[in-house]
Design a protein that fits this description.
Elements: H1 2-23, E1 51-58, H2 63-66, E2 71-76, H3 89-92, E3 98-99, H4 102-114, E4 120-123, H5 129-141, E5 148-152, H6 158-164, E6 170-173, H7 180-187, H8 192-207, E7 211-212, E8 218-227, H9 236-247, E9 252-256, H10 277-290
Parallel strand pairs: 2-4, 4-5, 5-6, 6-8, 8-9
Antiparallel strand pairs: 1-2, 1-3, 7-8
């Protein structure tokens, strides 16, 4: 009984801290200080009400997440980055979706669990952290037991991540750019690499290297995604070196080859084409040369 009471108190305390961060919004490193709960629009392009674009079993994630019954994904509208090449721009930039309450999200999570999904996968969740923590709280009280995934852009505040400690089981951040010039030009985030490095260190501190079951399903840990960009606009070698040297040589890294010009990328002289096979395999070769070996 005491353990239950302590858990409830801890969650209530975290909820209080989380909602305080959004009063004059400092949820993410942009610290736009917009009063989103009072109807002001933040840098993430949304106010304080949860907006869900879609949800359901997703069979296109990494093998260790999708398994054989799918990853229970919940796509959130809006984003705290401004990537000109976003493949989900109708969701992230044009904020497609339906307003939902934390209680409704909790019900969705439980439905995904009863459908057989292997995990709950929040996609682009950063700007709705308080509401999602509340939803997880209610869902766990009603029997949610699946691993919770924080599938984000890597542009996270340490204050927000500390609230998630013990709530999120698997962190799945992007690590998009190592060049401040590229991140400023392509995502309006000049300090992206500095911020992402600190954030990923905190994520790894909380959860460690990715842990897999005997069936190959992820249960806990860090999984990093890195999208190779044309003309090495992503600065791949610096990112992989950081992950190996400052996080862990056992870091699970999905080096992705699916870049294609979307949204405003057609207007950019270096981003208006797909990557070629050499650009991708050079990234794989470098990862192996420095000692990374998981995930690609």
């Amino acid at each position: 009984m005491n353990n239950t009471r302590t858990l409830v108190d801890t969650m209530e305390e975290r909820l209080h801290k989380a909602y305080k961060l959004i009063q004059e919004c400092v949820l993410c490193p942009r610290a736009c200080r917009k009063k989103r709960l009072e109807g002001e629009v933040g840098e993430c392009k949304v106010m304080g009400t949860l907006i869900i674009s879609s949800c359901g079993p997703h069979h296109g994630e990494e093998d260790c997440l999708r398994g054989w019954k799918g990853s229970g994904t919940i796509f959130l509208s809006g984003c705290n980055l401004g990537c000109i090449f976003c493949q989900n721009y109708t969701i992230s930039h044009l904020h497609e979706g339906v307003e939902s309450s934390p209680g409704e999200v909790a019900a969705i999570m439980l439905h995904l669990q009863s459908s057989g999904c292997h995990n709950i996968n929040f996609v682009t969740p950063t700007h709705f952290l308080p509401q999602l923590v509340e939803a997880i709280h209610w869902a766990k009280k009603k029997g949610l037991h699946l691993p919770v995934i924080w599938n984000c852009g890597g542009y996270e505040s340490i204050a927000g991540l500390k609230i998630l400690d013990g709530i999120v089981d698997i962190y799945m951040p992007d690590m998009k750019f190592s060049s401040s010039e590229a991140s400023a030009e392509l995502a309006n985030a000049p300090h992206y690499f500095l911020v992402a490095k600190k954030a990923i260190k905190e994520m790894h501190k909380q959860t460690g290297d990715l842990v897999l079951t005997s069936d190959g399903l992820a249960t806990r840990g860090l999984l990093v995604r890195h999208l190779v960009l044309p003309h090495d606009m992503s600065g791949t070698q610096a990112i992989l070196t950081f992950l190996h040297n400052e996080i862990s040589p056992h870091t699970y890294v999905n080096i992705m080859d699916q870049y294609r010009p979307c949204y405003k990328a057609f207007q950019h002289s270096k981003m208006n084409r797909c990557i070629n096979s050499k650009e991708y395999y050079d990234a794989i070769k470098f990862a192996k040369e420095i000692g990374l070996y998981r995930g690609f």
